[in-house]
Amino acid sequence: MRVLVVEDEQLLADAVATGLRREAMAVDVVYDGAAALERIGVNDYDVVVLDRDLPLVHGDDVCRKIVELGMPTRVLMLTASGDVSDRVEGLEIGADDYLPKPFAFSELTARVRALGRRTSLPLPPVLERAGIKLDPNRREVFREGKEVQLAPKEFAVLEVLLRSEGAVVSAEQLLEKAWDENTDPFTNVVRVTVMTLRRKLGEPPVIVTVPGSGYRI
Known about the structure:
The protein has 217 residues and is α/β, with parallel strands linked by helices. The two termini are 18 Å apart. Helix 2 runs parallel beside helix 3 (59-68). The protein has helices at 10-22, 33-40, 59-68, 84-93, 105-117, 152-163, 171-178, 189-201; strands at residues 2-6, 26-30, 47-51, 74-79, 97-100, 127-129, 132-135, 140-143, 146-147, 208-210, 214-216. It has 8 helices and 11 strands. Pfam families: Response_reg (PF00072), Trans_reg_C (PF00486). Member of the two-component regulatory system CutS/CutR, involved in the regulation of copper metabolism. CutR suppresses a defective melC1 gene, encoding a putative copper-transfer gene, probably by altering copper metabolism. Keywords: DNA-binding, Phosphoprotein, Transcription, Transcription regulation, Two-component regulatory system. One of its GO terms (cellular component) is cytosol.
C-alpha cells in the first residue's frame, strides 16, 4: 500500500511514517499543502493521511483537489479539533474518514488499512492463494499452515502479488507500491527482495517470473 503523510508537525509526521513503514506500507512524507499537491500530481497513492491545518495550502484545499481530479485515493483527515461540526465539514469536503488528535497509532493504522481496501475491488481481509495465507492486519503469513517470518518489504511485496489475483505485476509496479519515492528506480532491490521472499516461502516455488513482464503467484 502506498501512503502519503501530510503533516506540518514534523516530529509527528516522521513518527507516523516510521510506524506505517513498520506495518509494511510504502510511505512518503511532506510538511505543507503545496508539497502535497505536488506529490499527488506525480505519484498514485492509496491513502493520504492529511492534516487539516497546513501551511501554504490548507488541507481542505488539498482534499478538494483530490476529489476534483477524480482520484481513487482515499483521504484520512487529521485535526486538533474534536468538534462534531469540524468532522462533518471535513467529510462534506470529500474526506473519507476523520481522526482527531491526539490519536492512538493502532487506530490510525486500522483506519489507513480499511481505507486502502476501498481503493480497489473488494477483497477478503485475509488473502489466500497457492497455499499461502496472508493477514494484513495481524501481519502474519502462513504457507500450508506453517508460519513464515517476513521482513516488512518482503511482506509488502507478497501482499501486492496476492492482491493481483494471479495477474502479472511488473517490477515498476512493485517498486511503486512497496517502496517510497526516495528509492532509486534503477536499483535491483525488487529482484533481490523477490529472491529472498521465494527462499523464505520454501519449495515448490510459488512466485513465477514472467520474462520481460514481472512476477505473479
